[in-house]
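Follow-up to my post from last week.
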Amino acid sequence: MDAKLDNAEMENGTRPYSQTLARLRDAGLRPTRQRLALGRLLFEGGDQHVTAERLHEQAQGAGVSVSLATVYNTLHQFTDVNLLREVVVDSSRTYFDTNVSDHHHFFHEDDGRLMDIDGAKIEVSGLPEAPAGTGVSRVDIVIRVRSRD
Amino acid sequence: MDAKLDNAEMENGTRPYSQTLARLRDAGLRPTRQRLALGRLLFEGGDQHVTAERLHEQAQGAGVSVSLATVYNTLHQFTDVNLLREVVVDSSRTYFDTNVSDHHHFFHEDDGRLMDIDGAKIEVSGLPEAPAGTGVSRVDIVIRVRSRD
DNA sequence: CATTCTCTTTAGAATGATTATAATCTGTTG
DNA sequence: CAACAGATTATAATCATTCTAAAGAGAATG
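User reply:
Got it. Predicted complex:
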């Protein structure tokens, strides 16, 4: 056994729960079976953009039994503690983004797919001041594209 | 009577229907009583951001009887012919903007109000190319603000 | 490790915006 | 002014999301 192995991997034979577990702990969220399962699906699969419905399906597909209500609750709680970010691009669905760093999006209007655009590479100039008495909570740039056939 | 008066104002005693009438004609939309009334409310009151519900109320308030279904239909038809623009900032409501020129928005997260930002004054650099096979249909910038108490 | 307390989960009902349906009405054209 | 295509409307239907209140499960304690 290599000493470099994660603690989590040494404790039992399962995959690294620890990363997600630690995130939940740090965020002050009680690591329940459901939150761990959803967290693993979300955070251990690279950056992704999910809807509640899709995450629910993913969970079912992975053999995890979680109610849709819990999926909604969890997505919102994760968003509240900054583990997820809500992306508003379509008035009929809410997307949640596992990438919470500064970035923007391409939105494919034909199929609803989202792609990240690194925020560090973008520069916006000429923005007016926020209205008196208000502070900017976020600047969102959405580039809507459609396939040209 | 001044020769500079609008044709519309000379034809009868009513307010300038003509402007809205012309817009409908140009767009190829049959100028029905309902579309004229909604068009007047929308286009003759300066730039505004409305929801279907609000426009419906405005119509009632103005003594115009229009069903909510027609308000929805009309808003979408107007959007299709570029008399309106849909603004996606809130996943629970759809806003329609009477300003269809190049511009962006402040979105007040506390009360849902929108304010236009002239697009000519803004410069965005560093945007990556649109994904292969796609063309950009629009770039939307939303600055989310909240009042700081 | 049993108790207890609080936080979670959940099935199912409720909500609310939006869309579909199908009958009725109204511009427009000949 | 007849007749048809397009428009309006009341109403039902959808669909994502939220609410409810009841049952379940972590965590701290003795």
